[in-house]
Each structure stands twice: as structure tokens, then as C-alpha cells.
């Protein structure tokens, strides 16, 4: 082991056989607010690299050995899996420290990827409506790939790529990736790693089996944003989703609390439950288990955490158990300045589309009752300081303007009832392990023409709601400059953004090509952007 000094801080150069990492767009805490992670889904030419690196995807801190103090939950889970399988030389290293961590002893480099080619629904949509080009998620992955290629040619290690975006690598050839691991890691990844270290051949694509709950070890080091998994999978079985019904499991409370303790020892008191639906914790056959959920929230809060948040909840579960939603909110102490904004699947207003692609989505109700389910659930959530970010899937092969009109009607009903929610109509993506993986990718010219009306109505309301919700959106941002910058963007620029979506509506998407020549990462692009913003500032009313 050697040592060196940077700014009077002592670092040790260690040697590990297995190094786990991710590209810069994934290996970050987004400045303390996960909502800023969506900026990385924008075309890279529209967001200056300085702002991305400094405010939206800052480097995470490292310890004296160069290991990450906090890391994405997926890497922490893989780290724990390998350690529990008997591997004693494993380190989680952020990308900016990778060159100093890899050496002749390195045998395996493991990556988790979320959206390596910008193909997930949010990235795909933002690229499509803002003139195309690689998103920052894709740009960061491309840059990271170049770095890995150079290191690999020097040290001759093997690369395993896994994570929720690993299916994208089956669409394009990535020479430096030796194994693409699709699925969950616990059951099969240790075997794959051992085979590589032993010099055995491993298939290019490996599908991991789903482990039993007892086979899922708890994390041993802190996860960013206090992430702790409480469920895996979803039993609803929507065809556009890569998560199949048989994958659903509830993580035992003692394991959840053990992971909370790990995060708290690192000084993290904000807890983010990882789940596809918080109301399915401890459930049987999609029935809300009020006792299990209230016990989960109560015992977690009693550990001394500052608060509990969650990424996903489902409208049917909310409607079926409003008392549970109210109890969750009270236990977690939500209020006007301390609210939750989970992602919720709105999907479609069309009974035809719901019946074909997501029949169990409204359960215990039917697709015909979906509108009432959404309106009732939104009101219940709002009463408990929960403001849903509704996502929609638009662009199925047989979807017509009549189907989109029904979606517009549903969105307009939310607006007419003055409910607080964000609504994001996204193009449906044939993700690699979903039931619709053989569907064609959506293209701007082939979207139903009424999609652009839906997009405008939704975004106009989104901007109105966002103005009202500034304190909630910026409350978790640690960097005060970034907080003020976000507030300024929200408060001063939204009129122009609304005008942009109006132009997209009136031109049925063709206005998107206007943005194609704007690049804020070079001088010419900045001049064009200034001209474009000047036009927006003096646009006719």
C-alpha cells in the first residue's frame, strides 16, 4: 500500500480485486435533491457542462482509501451481496477516483447503469421534444466508457454491466463490456464473478434469477439520500413495465431497520424508502396492509430519523385505504413545507389501452372506473400533503386520437377539480425485458397528433403547480446557490417554457426541430441560445 497527499489530506492507495462503480450521471447525490436528477435526462447540448458537474451531478465524498462515503443503493446492495458470498476484496469507488483505484490486482469492474443510451421514457421524451441529440445520461456513459476502455487495455480486467438500464446495452454493441447482467444480483452474480476471477468463460448476456427474501443481505455501507429498500417488484403486471408480477417481495422490518441504522451511522437521517408502491408493503394479493405500513413508518421514525419519503405509490391502493395514507402522513409529519411528491402511474384515460396493456392497474376496480380512481386518490393524497407526479404512457401501436382524447379528458378533470399534481405524458418505450419489448420505438412524426395537445395541457398545469410548490421542490437542496438558481428558473423562465409547449402543440411537434442547433457547451451555441431566448422574451402575447 502506498500513500500520497492532496491538500494536506492523507489518502491511501489500496488494491482491490473487485471494484464497483457507475458513471457520473448515476454516481451522485444530485446535490441532496433527487428531483435534480431529471436534469440529466435533458439533451446534453442544452445544459452547460459546468452546471451539470457542479450543481446537478456533484462528486460524492470519499474516505482516506478513496472509497465512496455514500453510493447509489444498487451498488451498496451488490457490494453486500459479494461480501456475504465470501469475496473479501471489494470496493465501491466513484468515477472521479477510478484511475487511482484500478491497478494490476483488479480482476472485475462492476457497473450499474440506469439509462446508458438515453432510452428511458423521460430521457427519450425530452430529447424528442427538444430537437434530439444525446442526453446527459448518455453523454456521461459515453465519456465513462472511453475511460474504462483505456484502463481495461492497460490492466486487462473484465467488466460486468448490470442495473435497471442494462437492457439498453443489448440494443447496441459495447465492446468493453464483457458481461451484460440483466435482473437481480443476489442469486447469480457471485457465481459469475467467481467464474471470471477463475478465468472461466461467461456468456455475454446473463439473466439473474430472483432471490428469496432470505437471500437478500442488508447493505453494509451508507446509501445516498438515505435509501433503504422496503419492497421489490410489483404484482400488477403492466405490459410496458420490466417488472413482472412474480417478482414482488416485502423486505422484513428488522432488515429495513438495520439498513436505516447503517445510513444513520454515516450521519444520514433523511430516509428514502425504495419501493415500486409504498402501500404494498406487507400486502397480500394487492390488498393494503394498514398495520404493517403504520408499524414500518412508526418504528422507522422512532429511530430518530428526520423524515421518511418514498418514490412511488399507486392510485388504486390510495383509494382503497385512505386511512393508511393519512396515518403515513401524520407519522412522517408531512405539512405544507414538508411534503411528499412520489411518482404515480396515470398511464392513460383510454379504457381500451388500460384493458389491453395494464388490466390489473386499477385493481380492485376496473379500467372503466379508472377516472374516478384517479380523482379520488389525488384528493386523498392532497389532503395528506402528498402531491403525485403522474406519468402517462402514450404511443401504443393501436392508440388513436380518440384514445388520447380520453386521456386529455382525464387530465382536464384533474385540473377542473383544482387538484395538486404534476402530469407528464411520456412516449411508451419497449424496454428490453417488458412484454412489449418487440414494439417499435416511438418517433416524433408518428405520435398521435392529439399527443401534442395533451402535452401542452399537462405542462401548462405543471408549470402552474410548480410555482405553487417551490418550497417543497427546493427544500432538500443543500447548495444554497443551486437552490436560488432553481427558484429563479421556476419563477422567471416558466412563461417562456409554456410558450414553447404551445408551439409544439400548434406545429404537432415540428417546433422541436427549432432546438436542434442550440448547444450551450460551445460558443456558437451560446450565441444561438441568447438569440433564441431574446425571441422568447419579446414573443407576441
From TrEMBL:
SMART domains: Elp3
PROSITE patterns: RADICAL_SAM
Molecular function via GO: catalytic activity; iron-sulfur cluster binding
Residue ranges constituting the Radical SAM core domain according to the UniProt record: 218-478
PANTHER family, alphabetized: RADICAL SAM DOMAIN PROTEIN (PTHR42731:SF4), SLL1084 PROTEIN (PTHR42731)
Protein name from the UniProt record: Radical SAM core domain-containing protein
Taxon lineage: Archaea, Thermoproteota, Thermoprotei, Sulfolobales, Sulfolobaceae
Amino acid at each position: 500500500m502506498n500513500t500520497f497527499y492532496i491538500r494536506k489530506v492523507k489518502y491511501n492507495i489500496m488494491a482491490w480485486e473487485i471494484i464497483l462503480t457507475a458513471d457520473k450521471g448515476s454516481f451522485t447525490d444530485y446535490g441532496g435533491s433527487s428531483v435534480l436528477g431529471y436534469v440529466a435526462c435533458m439533451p446534453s447540448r442544452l445544459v452547460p457542462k459546468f452546471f451539470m458537474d457542479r450543481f446537478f451531478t456533484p462528486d460524492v465524498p470519499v474516505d482516506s482509501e478513496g472509497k465512496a462515503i455514500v453510493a447509489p443503493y444498487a451498488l451498496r446492495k451488490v457490494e453486500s451481496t459479494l461480501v456475504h458470498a465470501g469475496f473479501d476484496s471489494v470496493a465501491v469507488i466513484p468515477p472521479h477516483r477510478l484511475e487511482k483505484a484500478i491497478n494490476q490486482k483488479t480482476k472485475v469492474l462492476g457497473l450499474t447503469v440506469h439509462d446508458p443510451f438515453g432510452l428511458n421514457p423521460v430521457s427519450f421524451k425530452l430529447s424528442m421534444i427538444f430537437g434530439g441529440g444525446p442526453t446527459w445520461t448518455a453523454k456521461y456513459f459515453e465519456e465513462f466508457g472511453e475511460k474504462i476502455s483505456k484502463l481495461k487495455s492497460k490492466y486487462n480486467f473484465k467488466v460486468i454491466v448490470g442495473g435497471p438500464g442494462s437492457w439498453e446495452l443489448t440494443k447496441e454493441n459495447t465492446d468493453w463490456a464483457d458481461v451484460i447482467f440483466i435482473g437481480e444480483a443476489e442469486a447469480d452474480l457471485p457465481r459469475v464473478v467467481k467464474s471470471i476471477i477463475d478465468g472461466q468463460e461467461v456468456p455475454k448476456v446473463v439473466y439473474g434469477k430472483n432471490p428469496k427474501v432470505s437471500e437478500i443481505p442488508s447493505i453494509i455501507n451508507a446509501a445516498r439520500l438515505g435509501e433503504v429498500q422496503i419492497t421489490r417488484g410489483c404484482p400488477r403486471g403492466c405490459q410496458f413495465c420490466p417488472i413482472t408480477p412474480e417478482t414482488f417481495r416485502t423486505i422484513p422490518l428488522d432488515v429495513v431497520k438495520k439498513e436505516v441504522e447503517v445510513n444513520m451511522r454515516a450521519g444520514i437521517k433523511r430516509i428514502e424508502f425504495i419501493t415500486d408502491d409504498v402501500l404494498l408493503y406487507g400486502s397480500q394479493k394487492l390488498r393494503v396492509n394498514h398495520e404493517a405500513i403504520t408499524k414500518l413508518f412508526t418504528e422507522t421514525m422512532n429511530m430518530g430519523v428526520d423524515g421518511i419519503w418514498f418514490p412511488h405509490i399507486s392510485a388504486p391502493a390510495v383509494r382503497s385505504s385512505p386511512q393508511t395514507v393519512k396515518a403515513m402522513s401524520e407519522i412522517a409529519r408531512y405539512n405544507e413545507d414538508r411534503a411528499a411528491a412520489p411518482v404515480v402511474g396515470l398511464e392513460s384515460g383510454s379504457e381500451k389501452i388500460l384493458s389491453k396493456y395494464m388490466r390489473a392497474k386499477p385493481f380492485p376496480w376496473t379500467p372503466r372506473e379508472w377516472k374516478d380512481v384517479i380523482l379520488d386518490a389525488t384528493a386523498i393524497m392532497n389532503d395528506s400533503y402528498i402531491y403525485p407526479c403522474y406519468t402517462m404512457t402514450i404511443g401504443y401501436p393501436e392508440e388513436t386520437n380518440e384514445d388520447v382524447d380520453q386521456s386529455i379528458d382525464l387530465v382536464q378533470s384533474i385540473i377542473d377539480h383544482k387538484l395538486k399534481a404534476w402530469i407528464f405524458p411520456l412516449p411508451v418505450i419497449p424496454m428490453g425485458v417488458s412484454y412489449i419489448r418487440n414494439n417499435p420505438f416511438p418517433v416524433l412524426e408518428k405520435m398521435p397528433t392529439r399527443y401534442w395537445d395533451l402535452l401542452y395541457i399537462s405542462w401548462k398545469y405543471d408549470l402552474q403547480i410548480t410555482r405553487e410548490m417551490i418550497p417543497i421542490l427546493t427544500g432538500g437542496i443543500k447548495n444554497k446557490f443551486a437552490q436560488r438558481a432553481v427558484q429563479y428558473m421556476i419563477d422567471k423562465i416558466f412563461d417562456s417554457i409554456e410558450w414553447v409547449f404551445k408551439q409544439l402543440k400548434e406545429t404537432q411537434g415540428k417546433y422541436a426541430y427549432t432546438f436542434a442547433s442550440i448547444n450551450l457547451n460551445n460558443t456558437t451555441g451560446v450565441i444561438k441560445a441568447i438569440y433564441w431566448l431574446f425571441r422568447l422574451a419579446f414573443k407576441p402575447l
